[in-house]
């Protein structure tokens, strides 16, 4: 079998930017309204008063300074506090397809491939646009790609798991070139009235061309892949098609994304650090040989802690572990490949590791070498 490479990547993100000060101002105005409206119940101890957020709290908790979003105006409007979108409809492209096509074209240009070169399209995301038809097939149709296409969902590991599937398809002889697309339109699923999560997510999309053909000048050979899953309810969403038929009652807020942040931090960081360490050891690679750690952009503290555990010191050049989260926010499964796309200026022979960790728990690491 010939070598399998990351041959090209492309990213898309919306123009609207929300700063921490802006999102805090909106949230705190909501808090004032809530506390004033519920003043009597709060004084009687029936409900708890809401607490203010702050830019200092957000930066300390996450490292996020800004986020790109699809609808700044309505997210910041305390009477709306969510982006406005239109229903999925056969008369127009889905929002996921639009983002995916934009990123895909950039990835294809970088990989120097056209639609005729691509054998399959895999779309991985944390938030499915609809049940069917597959958005991957919608994009395949728009780009004029033959072969097969399908959607998959593994939370914030959807991108790396999709790349793994693409590698497997190529290694088995099913395909020579696969286009992986990961649209993460997360803001419609955020409860902007919750202090611990109102600031976390941005919107974006990444696309990656995986191939055994050498047509581009920026190839990264995939040396090895490693995956693991472990069940946890600490990151969860209960929204699904079953909601319509449910006999019990849950509020929309209870059905949206929520997480037990402290437990996730305490459980995931050591798990991922050990996972990466073992993966490198299995491939006879010393952590000091890794030139870049392109990790899931959950928050900057997690990224830095994981890297420090792997390399054995917390005194390292920050360029070793890029943090696009500062500008783009948490981009769910697209975060690790956003980091790769923006910071992959390695020299020939340099090695790096792409690693995701998300709901499930699900973890995937991919060791690559610049060609």
UniProtKB/TrEMBL annotation:
What are the Beta-ketoacyl-[acyl-carrier-protein] synthase III N-terminal domain coordinates in residue numbering? 150-228
Which organism is the protein's source?
SAR86 cluster bacterium SAR86A
Starting at the broadest rank, the lineage of the source organism is: Bacteria, Pseudomonadati, Pseudomonadota, Gammaproteobacteria, SAR86 cluster
> GO molecular function of the protein, one example?
3-oxoacyl-[acyl-carrier-protein] synthase activity
Q: What is the name attached to this protein's record?
A: Beta-ketoacyl-ACP synthase III
| Gene3D superfamilies named among the record's database cross-references | 3.40.47.10
Which keywords, in A-to-Z order, does the entry hold? Acyltransferase, Transferase
Acyltransferase listed as a keyword: yes
One record GO biological process: secondary metabolite biosynthetic process
């Amino acid at each position: 079998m010939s070598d399998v490479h990351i041959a090209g990547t492309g990213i898309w993100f919306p123009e609207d930017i929300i700063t921490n000060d802006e999102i805090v101002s909106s949230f705190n105005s909501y808090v004032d309204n809530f506390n004033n409206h519920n003043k009597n119940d709060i004084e009687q101890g029936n409900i708890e008063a809401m607490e203010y957020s702050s830019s200092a709290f957000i930066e300390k908790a996450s490292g996020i300074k800004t986020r790109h979003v699809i609808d700044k105006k309505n997210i910041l409007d305390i009477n709306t506090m969510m982006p406005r979108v239109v229903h999925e409809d056969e008369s127009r492209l889905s929002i996921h397809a639009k983002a995916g096509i934009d990123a895909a074209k950039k990835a294809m240009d970088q990989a120097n491939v056209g639609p005729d070169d691509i054998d399959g399209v895999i779309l991985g995301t944390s938030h499915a646009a609809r049940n069917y038809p597959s958005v991957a097939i919608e994009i395949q149709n728009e780009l004029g790609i033959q072969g097969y296409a399908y959607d998959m969902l593994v939370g914030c590991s959807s991108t790396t798991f999709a790349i793994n599937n693409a590698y497997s398809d190529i290694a088995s002889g099913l395909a020579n070139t696969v286009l992986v697309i990961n649209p993460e339109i997360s803001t419609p699923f955020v409860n902007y009235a919750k202090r611990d999560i109102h600031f976390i997510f941005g919107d974006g999309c990444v696309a990656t061309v995986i191939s055994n053909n050498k047509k581009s000048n920026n190839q990264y050979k995939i040396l090895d892949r490693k995956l693991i899953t472990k069940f946890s309810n600490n990151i969860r969403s209960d929204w699904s098609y079953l909601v319509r038929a449910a006999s019990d009652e849950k509020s929309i807020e209870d059905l949206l994304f929520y997480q037990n942040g402290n437990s996730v931090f305490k459980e995931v960081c050591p798990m991922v650090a050990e996972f990466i360490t073992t993966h490198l050891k299995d491939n006879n690679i010393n952590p000091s040989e890794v030139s870049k750690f392109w990790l899931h952009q959950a928050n900057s503290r997690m990224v830095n802690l994981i890297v420090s555990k792997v390399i054995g010191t917390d005194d390292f050049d920050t360029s070793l572990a890029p943090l696009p989260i500062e500008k783009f926010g948490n981009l769910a499964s697209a975060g690790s490949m956003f980091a790769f796309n923006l910071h992959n200026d390695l020299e020939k022979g340099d090695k790096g590791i792409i690693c995701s960790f998300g709901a499930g728990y699900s973890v995937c690491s991919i060791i690559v070498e610049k060609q």
